[in-house]
Amino acid sequence: TTIFVITPTYARLVQKAELTRLSQTFLHVPQLHWIVVEDSPQKTPLVTDLLKKSGLVYTHLHVPTAKDHKLQEGDPSWLKPRGVQQRNEGLRWLREDRRAEAGGDNLQGVVYFADDDNTYSLQVFEEMRSTQRVSVWPVGLVGGMKYERPVVEGGKKVVRFHTGWRPNRPFPIDMASFAVSLKLVLANPEACFDGNAPMGLLESSFLQGLVTIDELEPKADNCTKVLVWHTRTEKPKMKREEALQAQGLGSDPALEV
Ligand code: UGA
Ligand code: MN
Known about the structure:
Elements: E1 2-9, H1 15-26, E2 32-38, H2 45-54, E3 57-62, H3 84-100, E4 109-113, E5 119-120, H4 122-128, E6 134-136, E7 139-140, E8 147-153, E9 157-162, E10 178-181, H5 182-187, H6 202-207, E11 217-218, H7 220-223, E12 228-229, H8 239-246
Helix pairs in contact: 1-2
Bound molecules: uridine-5'-diphosphate-glucuronic acid (UGA) and manganese (II) ion (MN).
Binding site for Mn(2+): 117
Protein name: Galactosylgalactosylxylosylprotein 3-beta-glucuronosyltransferase
Binding site for UDP-alpha-D-glucuronate: 8-10, 39, 82, 87, 115-117, 230-232
C-alpha cells in the first residue's frame, strides 16, 4: 500500500528547513509518495530543487490561495484556514491526473495530509498503512492541550473526543490525526476541504461526507499513543539582518537558506 502524503507549503524564511526535516523523515518510510503543493502562482526553484535532490517519489504541484482567502499581515492566524486550496489540488491530482500515469489504476493506497511544520514519528505511517476507510489517532501539543485524541471504548469504537474546544464539532480532530483510504477518496469525488468553513470545521468539512464516527478505525493502541505532534516553528527575527542591510552589509541574497 502506497501512502500518498499531501503537503501544502508556502515561501517563508523557514520553508527550506521545514521541508528538509520532513523529507528526511519520509526517506525512512517505505512506499511513500509525497505530493507537495506550493501556495504560489508558479513552482519555485527552491522547492523544485529540494524535491529533485530529496531521493523521494514525489509530485510537485502549485496553486495560489485566492487573495480573499489569504491571511494578511497582522491578521490572527486563526482568521482564515490555511492550505485549503493546496490540499484540494492534491486531491484533484489523485482523482484526475494520476489515472493517466503508469499504475494509475491501482486503487491500493492511503491519503494523509501532512502540514510542513508538524513532527511525525515513523510509527504513525505504519499505523495508517492498514486504513480501510478512515483511521484516527492522537495528536500532541494541539488545541491548547497536551494532546487531543479520539476516546475508544467497548473494544474498537470511537465514542467521543478528548478536546478542549467545541467537542460537538462533527469531527473535532486536527488535520494530522486521520488518514483516508484512496478507495474512499476516489469513491467520493466531491469530498474536499471547504475554505469557507467556520473556524475549527475544516477537517469536518472533508470528513463529514466520508464517514460516521462509529466507522472510524482507531490506531496507535486504541488512540493511547502520541505519534505526531502539532509543532509550530518560531518566526526567525531579522533585526540584525535588517540593520546590516541598511549599511549595505546584508547577507548574500543569492545564498539559499
Ligand atoms: C492548524 C491545522 O493543524 C492545519 O491543518 C489547518 O490547516 C490550520 O490550523 C488552519 O486552520 O487552516 P496551523 O499550524 O495553525 O494548523 O497552520 P499552518 O501550519 O500555519 O498551515 C497549515 C499548512 O498550510 C502548512 O503546511 C503550511 O505550509 C500551509 N500554508 C500556510 C499555506 O500553504 N499557505 C499559507 O499562506 C499558510
Ligand atoms: Mn502548523
